[in-house]
Structures are given as C-alpha cells and as structure tokens.
Amino acid sequence: MSGAKERPLRADAARNRARLLEVATEVFTTRGVGVPTEEIARAAGVGVGTLFRHFPTKETLLGAVMVRRLETIAAQTAQLAAELEPADAFCACFRLVIEQSAGKNEFVQALAAADVDAHAALRESSEVIQAQLAKLLDGAQRAGAVRPELGLPELIALLAGTGTAMEHLGADPAARQRIFDVVFDGLRPH
Amino acid sequence: MSGAKERPLRADAARNRARLLEVATEVFTTRGVGVPTEEIARAAGVGVGTLFRHFPTKETLLGAVMVRRLETIAAQTAQLAAELEPADAFCACFRLVIEQSAGKNEFVQALAAADVDAHAALRESSEVIQAQLAKLLDGAQRAGAVRPELGLPELIALLAGTGTAMEHLGADPAARQRIFDVVFDGLRPH
Amino acid sequence: MSGAKERPLRADAARNRARLLEVATEVFTTRGVGVPTEEIARAAGVGVGTLFRHFPTKETLLGAVMVRRLETIAAQTAQLAAELEPADAFCACFRLVIEQSAGKNEFVQALAAADVDAHAALRESSEVIQAQLAKLLDGAQRAGAVRPELGLPELIALLAGTGTAMEHLGADPAARQRIFDVVFDGLRPH
Amino acid sequence: MSGAKERPLRADAARNRARLLEVATEVFTTRGVGVPTEEIARAAGVGVGTLFRHFPTKETLLGAVMVRRLETIAAQTAQLAAELEPADAFCACFRLVIEQSAGKNEFVQALAAADVDAHAALRESSEVIQAQLAKLLDGAQRAGAVRPELGLPELIALLAGTGTAMEHLGADPAARQRIFDVVFDGLRPH
DNA sequence: GATGAATGAGAATTCATTCAT
DNA sequence: AATGAATGAATTCTCATTCAT
User: Fold this and answer.
1) C94: number of Cβ within 10 Å
2) Which of A29-33, A140-144, A177-181 has the lowest mean pLDDT?
3) Per CATH, which fold does A59-187 belong to?
C-alpha cells in the first residue's frame, strides 16, 4: 500500500538522510518552520543539493520530520499500552505524547496549508496513532477512569492543548505536574 | 508611563489607523501572520505607504493588533469581575479570554521571535490583564472554587492550552463544552 | 474584449516599463531567452523587484516583448498594404516581417512551452497579423503574382524559414538579396 | 588531424557510449537541449558518472550528437552524389539534409554560445559536408539547374531556412511538398 | 499625509559537474 | 569503469521597507 520501491540506499547516503532528519527536527522544533533550508543543510554538514535530493521539497522534509515523530510516539505508545492496566496506560501515553510533542507546533499548520499528496505519508502514521489513542481512550473509559462522553476528537484537542500549556510553562517540573493534575482530574468522570 | 508624545492625529489619519487595525486583526486571525503587508493595506483601502506611516514595522502592526485585543478583553473582564461573584467571574472570564483569542495564534510566537522594544507596548496591556487574572484567580481560590496550589503562570498556560484545544475542535459547540467541563472540573480543588 | 482595466500609470513607472521592454527585446533577441532576469533589470537600470512588478513572470515579459514586436509589424504592414498594389504590397510586407523578426527566435518556442494564459495576450496580436497576411496573400494571388496553391500556413512557414536563412547569412546585403530572389521567384506561379 | 590518441575502448564502454549518443540524439531532438543530463543518462540506462566519463561536458555531448548527425548525412550524401546526375543529386541531397535535420534545432545555437574548442570536433565533420555541398552546388550550376550567382553560404542558409519552414509545418506532406516546390523553383536560373 | 513604485536581500529549487564507493 | 550521492553556483520570484511624486 505504501507503493514506493525503496532502494537499499548507500551507507553514507543513509547517514546523511538520518542526520538531515535529526537536524531538521531539532531546528524546526526550536526555531519554527521558517528557518531556511540552506541553514538546515549547513547544520547537517551537507550542501543544499543533498538536502533537496533526499527531500525534494521543504514540505517533504517537514512531513518526514512529522512522520518520524509520530512513528516514535506510536512505538512507545504501543509498548506502554501492552505493559500497563488500561487506566494507567491511558495516563502514561497522554504524558508521553505531550513530552514528545514539545516545540513549536506550527508543523501541522504548515502541512495543512499544503497539498494533499504531502499528507499522504502523514495520514498513514497519523491514523496509526489515532487508532492507538482511540483504543486507549476506550479502555480507560471502560475501566471507569475517564468520562464516557469524551470522543477521540476531544482527546486529540486536549493533547494539543496540554502541549501548548506545557510550552508556556517552560521546564518547571512542579508547575508541569500541576497542569497534569488539572487535566487528569478533569478527565475523570464527574 | 508610555513615554511617547502623542499628537492629536488628524481625523482621516485616525480613521485610517483604525481601519488598518480592524483589517489586520481580521486578516491575521483568519489567514495567519504570513499575509503580505501590501494585501492588508489594500484590504483597508490605503496604500502600503500609509500602513507603514502608522506602523513603522509589520511587527509593530502585529503588536498593535495584540494590544487592541488585550484591551478589549481587559475591559470586558473588568465588567464581568464587577458584576459577578468571584467563582462565577473566574469562569466567565476564562471563557471570555478563550472565545476572544480564537484564530491562528501564531501571533504570540511571531512577537516572541522579535526584539524587545516591540514588546514594550504590549507589556503594559499584558500586565493589566495579568493583574486582572491574578485577582480573579485569587478570588476564586478564596471562595474555594479553584485549587489553591495554582499560580498565575499555570492559569495563563491553561488559558493558552484551552485556546489551542478549541482551535483543534472547530465550531462544534457540544464538543467545546465538553472541553470546558474537563478544564473547569479539573480546576476545582480535589 | 481585452478585459484589463489599465490605470494611467505614473510617468516614471511608464518610463521604467518601456525601458524594460526595450532592453528585454534587445537582450532576448541578441543573446536568447536564457539571459537571467536580474541581468535585464540591471541593464534597464532598475532592481529585479521593479521588473517583476511590471512583469510578474519571466514568461510574461517574454510575451510582452513578442506582442510589442507583433504590434509594430502589424502597424507597418497595414500602412504598406494601404499604399501599394497587391503584388508589391505582398513583397514589401514579406521583407518587412523578415527584417523585423531578426534575432534568436526561440521566443516562440519558449512561449509555446508555457501555459495557455500567457498565450492569451499573444493570440490576439498574432491573429491580427495573420489576418493581414492572409489578405495580402489573397491579393497577390488574385493579381497572379503568387502561386495559387499556397495557403496561410505555408506563407508563415516560409516567413519563418526565410528569417532563419537571413540569420545564417549575417549582414551581407548582396547575399540577402539573393535569398529574397530565390524565395520571391519561387513564390510566383510556375 | 584529430590529434587525440584514442585507446581501443572496452566493449561495454563502447556500447555505453553508443547508447548514450543514440538516446541523446533522440532526446535533444524531440525535447530540446534543456533536458537535464541526468535524465539522458537514465534513459540510456547508465549513471550520470558514466555519461560524464564519455563526454566530459554537456556541450561535448551536444557536439558529439551533431557530429554523428553530420557524418550520417555526409555518408548518405556521398552515395546519392555518386548515383545520380548532378541536378538530381543536388535536389536529392537538399531534401536529405532537410529530412535528417528535423527536430528542435537549438543545437547549433547552443553550440554557438559555447567556446571554440567544443567546435573543434565539429569543424572537421562540418567541413566534410560543406565540401560535398559545394561540389553538388557546382555540379548543379554547371548543368544549368541552379542559378549561377548562388554561393555555398547562400545554399547553407537556404538549407537552414527550409528546415525551419518544415518544422513550422509539422507533418502534412502536401504542404511540405509545396514548400519544396517554392524553393526548388526559386533556385532555378531566372 | 497619502500613494504606490522601486528596492534588494533572501528563499526555494535546479542542474552541470565532481568524487567517494 | 560504473555508479549515483554530494556539491554549490545560479535562477526565479517574494515581500518588508523606503522614497519620489
């Protein structure tokens, strides 16, 4: 279904690609999507040409960064979901998503402004995570740990919102915990 | 406190300035800060030159838009605070801020990316609101309606976060209400 | 039908636009369409921005150059057609087109490679000329000066071809005349 | 005369070189010289590196394509010249050159824009053909079939021009024949 | 004061050519 | 020899800001 015929990719090319993704993630996250591609290339120690060989469009790069993030989160989520009781799993994953999503989240908007094909790759990863979240939510609700009237869209909105709140708070762990307290207590049936 | 000597400003100039702010608010809110200044000028029915005479920098314009929003919110907040019991006032104002802040909120980020002087004008308005929020929070906490361990920073973070959540949800009023339920229930002492 | 509402255009702006066209004609003609826009701007003594304000696309500029050429030719053709007997008019106009069309004629191809809208402006001018040529051809054929089996497409092809031949010949007037002799003698009924 | 010490060239290398020339001829002819080298390499089933090993410059490749064309034409011309009467040989060869030269003829211009060394290889092939054409012209003139005042430069210019005319006409054989009629009748003594 | 033309520093992207594998 | 990844100069176009009218 992911119809691309992926060549093995030479060792050094793979390294460059990985490095580029690494750097782009860092840069986009800390300084926003407005950063010039050239700067990302320089930071990765390659020429612009190389960047564009791997990601034919800035948007493609953006998408690849997102996908990588999503895949990481999906993997960790899967593990937590397997190891913990429904209610705990739900909380742990909620926290996980928040911690992993930190940074300027204009990403999504930047991508939303773009054409559909760019989304194609994202859609898949996105659906995987959403499915996981839906299952976690359902489990927590059956266990009576989360208000039954909430749907997946609200959960996603709350994740996004909590992420924003955390950004505004900076690193103070006590304050962050207080936010989690509010959200988790608010999520419980009332 | 605002050290500038403001001349009276001719009638038509004032009208232009007002119209520009109006339009800029609308445009920035619905289409983001990336919109070219020229387009804003055109939408306001003036030349770019006029825009830049009133707001010597795009960032200045952005700041002015923010200030206007903040002042509106501050005024409405003051009124609500005067009319309602502490607990109700807190909730009403929380909702108010959320509803008024709707739209592409890259604003803040765009401003954050800029130099300190641009903030100067904002700081004042910002402080006014923060003082109001602090008072509301304190009142609600004294009334036992809000967890006592929350500080102003957390409140602000939650406001920002709830705003983001609402954006992700679109216009569905029932879903929006469910988010408010979670947040307000979570804010209560547990 | 030419639906554009043309503003009067300020004096200096008009001068720049004219100069730009002048220079672009010269440059494209002598050095081909590959010349960077920036260089054209420089040669016209303006910044790139100005060039792109007047011609939002390199292709637009190309088109405008063509249109100008075509219009010049059309005007001169009209005059010659009015003043001379059919047979002479035909020859005179044939020569005229050749002399005016000199230069690297990749123009047309460059434009042909582009989208339809760019052609729109050209089409009109092009049709005007083609109508004139059709009339001239018809007149000359009625006068028995040109083979009756030739159609407009062949005439156009011959114009293009003779133009190419002239380019290959450079400025030697005697040689150019010999080419004309061949073509005109060949055009006569046999 | 061609001062390079040519090594025998391994069998597969020779095959690659041939294939490259084949493909480049096709591609340049149908799509113009703007096509990226990489694409030509891909179409030939080799890597760019290989292309550049055989032809150290895009221009070199262009030149080689031209040479190949010229050599083909020269060979066929020689055969026709040997088989036919002077007048017929002249006409047949004229047609031959036209038919073989079809396609986007920016070639020559592209080469003309380049430095002299690239021409060096061409010069030789070019001189061969020109000698043949001179002889054919002379023969036809002696036979009284072609105007005596025409020189080789005019013949070449007419060949180029007729080629252009044909390109403008597309494939319609009747129209093409009408062009030939004009040219051949024009070439006859008047 | 208002206007909108002019400016030019970027920004994304392409492509001939080089070079490590 | 062949490969294709890497390179970076060059190119088109945008947009905040300035300035002549």
Assistant:
1) 24
2) A29-33
3) Tetracycline Repressor; domain 2 (1.10.357)
Query: What CATH code would you report for C58-187?
Result: 1.10.357.10
Q: Which of residues 33-72 of C touch D (CB under 8 A)?
A: none
Chains C and D touch each other (3 or more Cβ pairs < 8 A) = yes
C173 touches chain D (CB under 8 A): no
CA of C125 to C1' of F11 (A): 30
Residue B114 has pLDDT above 70, yes or no: no
Say yes or no: Cβ of C50 under 7 A from any atom of strand E. yes
pLDDT at D124: 84
Q: Which one of 3.30.457.10, 1.10.260.40, 1.10.287.70, 1.10.10.60 gives the CATH number of domain A8-56? A: 1.10.10.60
B59 touches strand F (CB under 7 A): yes
**Does C2 have pLDDT greater than 60?**
no
CB contact under 8 A, B169 and A154: yes
Residue range B45-75, pLDDT digits in tens = 999 999 999 999 999 999 999 999 889 999 9
Other Cβ atoms within 10 Å of A161 Cβ, number: 26
Is A183 in contact with B186 (Cβ distance < 8 A)? yes
- When scoring D168, D180, D184 by the number of chain C Cβ atoms within 10 A, the one with the most, hence best to mutate, is D168
Contact (Cβ atoms closer than 8 angstroms) between residue D76 and residue D68: no
Chains contacting D (3 or more CB pairs within 8 Å): C
CA dist., res. D20 & res. D39, Å (int): 11
Domain boundaries, chain B: 8-56, 58-187
**Tens of pLDDT, residues B74-91:** 999 999 999 999 999 999
Q: Which residues 118 to 147 of B reach strand F, CB within 7 A? A: none
> Are the folds of C9-56 and C58-187 the same?
no
The per-residue pLDDT for D150 is 97
Residue numbers in A 23-82, CB below 7 Å of strand E:
36-38, 48-49, 52-53, 56-59
For residue A5, give how far its alpha carbon lies from the nearest alpha carbon of chain B (Å).
35
Write a three-state SS string for chain D.
CCCCCCCCCCHHHHHHHHHHHHHHHHHHHHHCCCCCHHHHHHHHCCCHHHHHHHCCCHHHHHHHHHHHHHHHHHHHHHHHHHHCCHHHHHHHHHHHHHHHCCCCCHHHHHHHCCCHHHHHHHHHHHHHHHHHHHHHHHHHHHCCCCCCCCCHHHHHHHHHHHHHHHHHHCCCHHHHHHHHHHHHHHHCCC
Q: How many residues make up chain D in this entry?
A: 190
Q: Is the pLDDT of residue C48 over 50?
A: yes
Whether residue B182 and residue A151 make contact (CB cut-off 8 A), yes or no, is no
Which CATH superfamily includes the segment(s) D9-56?
A: Homeodomain-like (1.10.10.60)
**Contact call for C169 and D178, based on CB within 8 A:** no
d(CA A23, CA A14): 14
Q: What is the pTM of this model?
A: 0.88
